[in-house]
Design brief:
It is a single chain. The protein is an alpha+beta fold and 181 residues long. The chain has a single domain, classed as Lipocalin, CATH 2.40.128. Helices cover 15% and strands 52% of the residues. It contains 2 helices and 9 strands, in the order H-E-E-E-E-H-E-E-E-E-E. The radius of gyration is 20 Å and the shape is elongated. It starts with a helix and ends with a strand.
């Protein structure tokens, strides 16, 4: 009986010692805003998926372009068909390394940076992103704000509507992560 109990305890210890702690976000929010003198355009995607691999200090994010919702249906249609070509390039992704060493087991607030690859419209671009990570009561909230120049991802704006769309789009992210079971 003692041998069985010892084997079970040893197995549980080894499993936890080698387990990689992952944090999941299944319904994160990413929004963008384009401000011009002629027209402001905004949209939000509340279905963003993300994962943090605590053992490697890495983050990966995936969003489906057609999940961005606009107040104006025509803008949404133009976004997906003419600019993002969502049928051809359905996803936007970011994969990066969190530069700071974070103690994920302690509540706290951390300014974080991440170096990685932002993939949009079929174009991969190295990016350094900054944000704030708050760890509280077994959850992680990550917020970030950054600008994306459309030309970096070969997103072309027709001359006729150029005055209505900013050359750089302001992006904001708000994601909540829970431990992966």
């Amino acid at each position: 009986m003692k041998k069985i109990l010892l084997a079970l305890l040893l197995t549980a210890f080894l499993k936890s010692a080698f387990a990689q702690k992952m944090w999941l976000c299944k319904a994160g929010e990413t929004s963008f805003f384009s401000e011009t003198p002629m027209e402001n355009i905004s949209a939000v995607n509340k279905k963003v998926a993300a994962i943090i691999d605590e053992s490697k200090n890495e983050i990966a994010v995936k969003m489906v372009m057609i999940d961005f919702k606009f107040k104006n249906h025509l803008m949404e249609e133009h976004f997906n068909e003419n600019y993002m070509e969502s049928e051809k390039y359905p996803n936007g992704t970011f994969k990066g390394k969190i530069n700071e060493k974070i103690d994920f087991s302690k509540n706290g607030s951390y300014n974080v940076t991440s170096h990685g690859i932002l993939m949009m419209h079929g174009v991969a671009k190295e990016r350094d992103l900054t944000g704030k990570m708050v760890i509280e009561n077994g959850k992680i909230t990550l917020t970030a704000a950054f600008n994306v120049p459309l030309k970096d991802h070969k997103i072309e704006i027709p001359t006729i509507v150029m005055a209505k769309i900013a050359e750089e789009i302001a992006v904001k992210c708000n994601w909540t992560f829970t431990p992966k079971n």
